[in-house]
């Protein structure tokens, strides 16, 4: 036990200032495992001075009465290896884990309560030969850059102690904070957006420049103003947190600057999905790095890293649930980027929307409709529905049905079919034409035209189709028939009745089928089908493709 108590007592016998070898020897006797790493040495030094002040006031036992390591080892296993200094609550305990396992040091609780012990003992008288008022001299003393005579000539009220600090130190802290805030304000004004990607680099460099400035101010608080006590802990926490916040902001600005520089390349369309993904990807990486920097800062301040990670995980789940539609659109945006069904400037049809793609973002796609209005479609909806990209077509088909009047004769119909085929085969912009008479409508004879225009440009397709339709109208006019209108015609005439001769002939034919057992109902026999197979000529006689069939034996 005296391995901790004796060096501390011997170390405090020196009258060196706080930065001497005695300080190092005394602070080495403290268990600082609970202190934040960023200020463990400084807080331990202050705790050592306060404990020193207490020990200078209370009676201490002789060294031979203090149990050593061998005496503590003889204790039963279930007895804690702790010794309390008589007349106090200050404890020296065995370190159970860490790099100093097995050593006896002033316990973490004692280090945490050093100020409490100091306040309880400050009204006690100093023992003879003690370094009286050492900690108080630190409270009032300035650092090496601040001349002591400046403090001596100040009014007495400036030297008073308020909340553990001299008033002049509070004034110095306020003044220093104002200077720091002024520098931050000037940096913010200088980094305002001015167009292009350069202002992002300017903001990044200014944020980086603030890092050493912040470190310098922290050093000024610690070594020149020599702030102590809870005020030092609060201010140091704030400065360290600001330092890591500035570092995170610098990383975010770096990500934005890199993205802006890449997107500014003439090879990348500013409104394209590529540009959006580059920007979003760069910023996502920057946010991840910034989050890690902040987590590191919290860890340095003593916040358990596992708690930070757990809070980030819970926060991430809550954010994901709240931002589910946005995440769906982001994922759909990535899908659009990978599939590339459309590009900016291409003409497409989405459901009943027809227009030109103007922008493909991570959240939505914008289409300029024919009427001039701009339609914004969420990427999740845009990726789930059918999309017709007319720009990727080698050919655009033309499909139209003609409705000719019922009083059109077979020869007129044949004329329209033949001349329309001639037109389409002769047209230089038509590929694979097909013209057929396909049926009898309610009020018209239906002719179907199917062909492909030799273009993938939507506007040119309209021009080709228009030219074909105008020529077909001319063919119909020349044939002597007309297009049918959706109408009903009522005829007022005397009914001549049925042709009796043809009726008798038809009825006689059916009777002969019945008598001969050849009635083809409900189906023809196999022999009848075989006898009829191929007896008609196709193409019909008179066609350019007609070939006379050889007579059967």
Distance between the termini: 131 Å
Please identify the structural class as seen in this structure.
Answer: alpha+beta
Rg from C-alpha positions? 49 Å
The rough form would be described as elongated
The total tally of domains equals: 4
Question: Layout of SSEs?
Answer:
Layout: H1 2-11, H2 21-27, H3 40-55, H4 69-73, E1 82-84, E2 91-94, E3 104-106, H5 108-112, H6 114-121, H7 134-140, H8 148-152, E4 161-162, E5 165-166, H9 167-190, H10 198-224, H11 229-263, H12 273-300, H13 305-322, H14 324-339, E6 347-350, E7 353-360, E8 364-369, E9 374-378, H15 379-384, E10 387-389, E11 396-404, H16 410-426, E12 430-440, E13 445-453, H17 458-479, H18 500-515, H19 526-532
Antiparallel strand pairs: 1-2, 2-3, 4-5, 6-7, 6-10, 7-8, 8-9, 11-13, 12-13
Give a structural overview:
By secondary structure, this protein is of the alpha+beta class. It has four domains: 2-140, no CATH class; 165-322, no CATH class; 342-391, SH3 type barrels (Roll); 394-479, Alpha-Beta Plaits. It has 19 helices and 13 strands. It has helices at residues 2-11, 21-27, 40-55, 69-73, 108-112, 114-121, 134-140, 148-152, 167-190, 198-224, 229-263, 273-300, 305-322, 324-339, 379-384, 410-426, 458-479, 500-515, 526-532, and strands at residues 82-84, 91-94, 104-106, 161-162, 165-166, 347-350, 353-360, 364-369, 374-378, 387-389, 396-404, 430-440, 445-453. Strands 9-8-7-6-10 form a five-stranded antiparallel sheet. A hairpin with a 4-residue loop joins strand 12 (430-440) and strand 13. The radius of gyration is 49 Å and the shape is elongated.
